[in-house]
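REVIEWER CHECKLIST
Item 1: Sequence provided? yes
Item 2: Single chain? yes
Item 3: Sequence as submitted:
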Amino acid sequence: MLAVGRMVRALLRGADTPECADLAARLVAEQPAFRFDPYPGRASGYVVDTVQTVLHFFFSHQRFEDAVTGAVNRGEDADTTGALVGMLAGARCGARALPRHWLDRIDRAVVRAITAQTLALLAIGLEQTASPHPTLFSPGDRP
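Item 4: Structure as written out by the authors:
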C-alpha cells in the first residue's frame, strides 16, 4: 500500500500517469504477486487483490467516474477499492472531475467541512515537504 501512497504524493506534486506507471512497475518488479495486468478479477479485502483492483482501474480509466465506478462494480471489498481508486483518480484529475450528480447529493455543510480539512492537510504536507527535516519519506528512504 506504500506504493499507492507514493503514487498519490507524486500526482499531488504534478506527476502524470506515466510516472505513476513507473512506480507501479517497480512495485510489481519487487513484489510480483501485485501484478495487475492482466487483471485477475478479484476484489476481496486481501491486500494483493485490493492493490491489483485499484491499479487496474486507475490505469485503465482516465476519467474519475469511470475508474471509481469500475472498481466499485467489482463488488466484494468495494468500499475500500472505490476509496483507493478515488484517491488516486482524484489526485490525478482534480476536484473538477468529481461528478456533479454525486456532489449534488452531499450536504453543503459536509462539503465545507471536507474542503476545510483537505486544505489543512495539504498545508501540513507542504510545510513538511519544505522543512529541512521532513517527516514524509521519499520513495527510496528508509526510517
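Item 5: Key structural point noted by reviewer: The chain has two domains: 2-97, 106-143.
Item 6: Recommendation: ____
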